[in-house]
Design a protein that fits this description.
alpha/beta; Rossmann fold; seven-stranded mixed beta sheet; about 40% helix; about 15% strand
């Protein structure tokens, strides 16, 4: 669990690639929040409880963690698989969630496009899918460098755990749009317009499912706007969070 900042609480849930550690966008959020960024069970070398075999299971685990830590009136933010997890948690118990931020979230199947294959491809291919324009990604050379044997083992284990959670059906829950209709929590849906993993049409599908959602599409941006377009991402999030009161 990485954490920093001052209250109130913002809980950030990582994507299928695992917990990349404390990132610049986490630091930016600490100006107004205490940011908590945990490694989910089975990721980054953490134990894999046998009973956790779906995103729904992971949502129950994470809710128990939230209750144990005593979070209330908190902001819940998740990216990609973590966005899907955040949406499932909100559908289960949204009463303590002050605001919900979904970043290029998996979880809803597109009607026209397809969700890209990310588990059976190389790391270089995944990086190519993740970013629209690598030249605008801060520290891209560090993100795309060759992994050490130890890092490669963690990366493989993370993908294995993500596959266990997300394979069938692939990166979505057919029932999720129906669950979300009762979630009245103010929600920001942030998406990179050129997302090559989860089609941008899914932003509108989330907005249609959530009664109190606002959509922000970031142009010239891929699957991870918080990394590829940090200034625009931060501006959108700050405006949304500033309006929560």
């Amino acid at each position: 669990m990485f954490s920093g900042g001052q209250k109130p609480v913002l809980l950030y849930l990582h994507g299928a690639g695992g917990n990349a550690g404390w990132q610049d966008f986490h630091g930016a959020l600490t100006e107004n929040y205490t940011v908590y960024a945990p490694s989910l069970p089975g990721f980054n070398g953490t134990p894999r409880p046998e009973w956790i075999s779906s995103i729904t299971d992971m949502a129950h685990f994470t809710l128990h963690m939230i209750e144990t830590l005593g979070f209330s009136d908190y902001v819940l933010m998740g990216s990609s698989m973590g966005g899907w997890l955040a949406a499932e948690i909100a559908a289960m118990d949204h009463h303590n969630i002050k605001g919900l931020v979904l970043i290029d979230a998996a979880g809803i199947r597109p009607k026209h496009g397809e969700i890209a294959e990310i588990f059976m491809v190389s790391g270089q291919t995944r990086a190519g899918l993740r970013f629209h324009d690598p030249s605008q990604v801060p520290n891209y050379e560090q993100l795309s460098r060759d992994l050490t044997p130890e890092e490669a083992a963690v990366d493989h284990a993370n993908r294995e755990m993500a596959s266990r959670l997300c394979w069938k059906p692939y990166l979505h829950n057919p029932s999720l749009p129906h669950y979300l209709g009762k979630v009245k929590t103010p929600t920001l849906v942030v998406w990179g317009r050129q997302d090559a993993i989860i089609p941008v049409e899914c932003a509108d599908l989330y907005a249609k499912a959530l009664p109190n959602a606002t959509v922000k599409i970031i142009d010239n941006c891929g699957h991870s706007p918080q990394v590829e377009k940090p200034a625009e991402f931060s501006a959108a999030v700050d405006e949304f969070l500033g309006g929560l009161g």
